[in-house]
Prior knowledge:
By secondary structure, this protein is α+β, with helices and mostly antiparallel strands. Helix content is 31%, strand content 15%.
Amino acid sequence: SDQIKENVTNLDPHYKGTYKPFTKKTRFRDFNYKDLENKLNGDLVSKNCNLKLICCYFPDTLSEEEKNNLKHQTYSFVHFDFDLYKPTTEAINFVLPQLEKNAILLFDDFNMINQDGVKPAVLESKIIFNRCFQTSGGQLICFT
């Protein structure tokens, strides 16, 4: 999409040119993320859970109202799965001031060759890296 093209940096080489890792044509022919988001959020609300799934291209596809609502929240667990440097950096900078003590941050694709931008986004942030560990699946889990 145009949003991905606008946000691809030199740290995201797999997204340049013709490479498109996850498209409806290649992987998700019958997948509708809105249906998944609605079902999960409906299930979470019915169970009085404070967890909320937000499917977006951060922060570009969030409305001003959604951004303001998120700015007034505190977070104890955040799962980052943006694949690219720029949205990962922006999400980290957005959420860090609002983390509760001992919050957990989970970064998908931290150590994956197809999502090279995630690692520098984390390493350049104010996250204390010695309070993190990598999983065998390439994820990074950090404790604040």
